[in-house]
Fold this sequence. Notes:
Dehydroquinate synthase-like, alpha domain; 49% helix; Rossmann fold; two-stranded antiparallel sheet; single chain; alpha/beta
Amino acid sequence: xxxxxxxxxxxxxxxxxxxxxxxxxxxxxxxxxxxxxxxxxxxxxxxxxxxxxxxxxxxxxxxxxxxxxxxxxxxxxxxxxxxxxxxxxxxxxxxxxxxxxxxxxxxxxxxxxxxxxxxxxxxxxxxxxxxxxxxxxxxxxxxxxxxxxxxxxxxxxxxxxxxxxxxxxxxxxxxxxxxxxxxxxxxxxxxxxxxxxxxxxxxxxxxxxxxxxxxxxxxxxxxxxxxxxxxxxxxxxxxxxxxxxxxxxxxxxxxxxxxxxxxxxxxxxxxxxxxxxxxxxxxxxxxxxxxxxxxxxxxxxxxxxxxxxxxxxxxxxxxxxxxxxxxxxxxxxxxxxxxxxxxxxxxxxxxxxxxxxxxxxxxxxxxxxxxxxxxxxxxxxxxxxxxx
Length: 388
């Protein structure tokens, strides 16, 4: 076995109803809480109000920043950080999906450092331990942000989507309560659920993977394949919601230690240039061509995942199972209603060219078993324009 490191410092509080513990948990880290969420017009807003009331009942002072939007920007983070400083926040609580948790992390940095959060992104030395303590409650099941050292943000002026990636932004505590994920509509369940699949599959494939990551990733992939369709069929199925929250958490552990690969690097650029496209949609668009581009460079692993999705491949050779895994993943995307192309989301060929040109801004593509050139990225993405 080769040497490896594994690091997972976040305390996870997992289980239905455990949101009720947020007051006592937060109090251990501070008494002036900046609550970070999306708009109160959101269908999840009752969760925000419930959390706020629990905090106040525990004797904590609370200031609510409810300005989070999908594909959050540096301008938005600066607005939240200003509020945190004026309030004197000493702990930040992100409640919501990946965007809310990422914004909470970025605010925790900008509120305590010179400049903006962007000045501490993955191309720099990152933030110091002056970063405010971060606590998260995830209302979706797929981003894994509650357990990672990553905060994805877009620099508004440049339409450049990047991330802070540093151990100082690992949340102190993550509350994973499957009950609150039942608020998700089908489209969000599908998109975030597929993101959980991608985090684990890409960490499994990554050149930075390890035996621990591989074991966790395969467990998560099996779980998503079985339970995401069930969660889509019945959003109140708490076993399915719990299993998806579990797979999402495993994705946080695998992503934080092995990283992701080509689809996430390209998907980030899609979100930066075309913010109306969600992260899950971007991944779904890319995956059919990504699998065909990559499988020959990781035959055994593609074969293993192909057999999880389609057990009929068990009796096939690794070579055949790996090739047919591409069709198996296509079938899964169709099953969860994510068989989409760029054309479906009004992304133009000119925008595809620009996405490709930015494809090496982030280093995720270097983790892929087959490293793509810019021209290969462009060829791959043009094949994603329209689905038959």
